[in-house]
Amino acid sequence: MAIAQVLALSSSTSSFVRTDRPKVRRAAPSRVAAAAAGATVGEPARRLVAAFDPAIPLASAVTPPSEWYTDPEFLRLELDRVFLRGWQAVGHIGQVKNPNDFFSGRLGNVEFVICRDAHGKLHAFHNVCRHHASLLACGSGQKTCFQCPYHGWTYGLDGALLKATRISGIKNFNKNVFCDNYLDGGYHVPYAHGALASGLQLQSYETLTYERVSVQRCESAPAEQEDIDRLGTKAIYAFVYPNFMINRYGPWMDTNLAVPLDATRCKVVFDYFLDESLLDDQDFIDQSLKDSEQVQIEDIALCEGVQKGLESPAYGVGRYAPSVEMAMHHFHRLLHTNLCG
Fold first, then answer.
1. Where is each Rieske domain found (predicted)?
2. CA 122 to CA 161: how far, in whole Å?
3. Collapsing DSSP states into helix, strand and coil, what is residue 122?
4. Which one of 15, 94, 139, 208 is most buried, by most CB atoms within 10 A?
């Protein structure tokens, strides 16, 4: 299985680093990070956090109030307490495999760029020009430097400011500093994913929870002789709190990264991985992508419908299905712990 190392953002106010945690060069905190670090919790958000009691046993517990998924102030609290205070997955090592490779992204209000310099060293920075906050990089590709499209300030892929146009007369300026529906235990599968359900032995579905990870697994049904056996012998779904998912079906694996956009929307980034022995099997690849896409289309319709329901004044809180929704309850308890600070 050709699996890439996962890249992650740290919660440092001045820089982002990768998962193996090399020494971090400290710089003056950016305006964005400083604002996030100083965020205060409003009384409405505190009341929403307190509305969920993680101490109630699963069989008697109710889910968090719908405002956890709809309220803008709650999203600000969530970004500060959950996403900006710990390591977050942002991509895989194959996206910056070669010198001068880069890709950009966004987490909440934090714009970032991941790059590998000419010497092969991996870096992660705030994707903001220190001049007037213009974004420096967009998308992915190869660059030998990042040039601001606003006023031409230019930065090396090691974060150094190489050229600052028209800066004569500026005082106290140091040219050398820059930087910086998954968890329901298969509950929805037979109702929302008929094709996928037909390939699984749902009676074998089990859920395991660990400190910040939950794992769901299920035996696969025997494949028909003429079918492409994408599922293998077992399906495994791992959720890494707060927003990273790994789905393994035999020789096929995909990862999902859920990134919040605002109080009611998120973006999910998919990456696909395949056992090396099947890299030349285009029929297998095409069918696997088609099957995966079908599940995503079904999940999008499902999640959008649920979101509309959460926003309805007719809905307040729901209940858990104790025999299958252990991972969901586990997730909500972890979220509550973070939100309480």
1. 87-159
2. 17
3. strand
4. 15
Question: Which domain covers residue 323, as residue numbers?
Answer: 170-340
Residue 237 and residue 114 share a domain: no
pLDDT tens digits, one per residue of 318-335: 777 787 788 889 999 999
Domain count within the chain? 2
3-state secondary structure string across 37-101: HCCCCCHHHHHHHHCCCCCCCHHHCECCCHHHHCCHHHHHHHHHHHHCCCCEEEEEHHHHCCCCE
Burial (CB count <10 Å: 0-12, 13-18, 19+), residue 160: middle
111-115 CB contacts, 8 Å cutoff, 24+ apart: 111/32, 111/135, 112/9, 112/16, 113/137, 113/146, 114/7, 114/16, 114/90, 115/143, 115/157
Of the candidate ranges 53-62, 201-210, 332-341, the one whose mean pLDDT is the lowest: 201-210
State if pTM tops 0.70. no
The helix/strand/coil state of 205 is: coil
pLDDT in tens, 138-156: 899 999 999 887 777 889 9
Angle among Cα 229, 194, 322 to the nearest 5 degrees reads 105
Distance CA 115, CA 113 (A): 6
Looking at the structure, tell me whether residues 178 and 155 fall in a common domain. Answer: no
Tokens of 90: 């942002």
Residues 209 and 330: beta-carbon distance below 8 Å: yes
Start-to-end CA distance of the chain, whole Å, equals 39
Which helix H or strand E contains 189, and what residues bound it?
A: helix 189-192
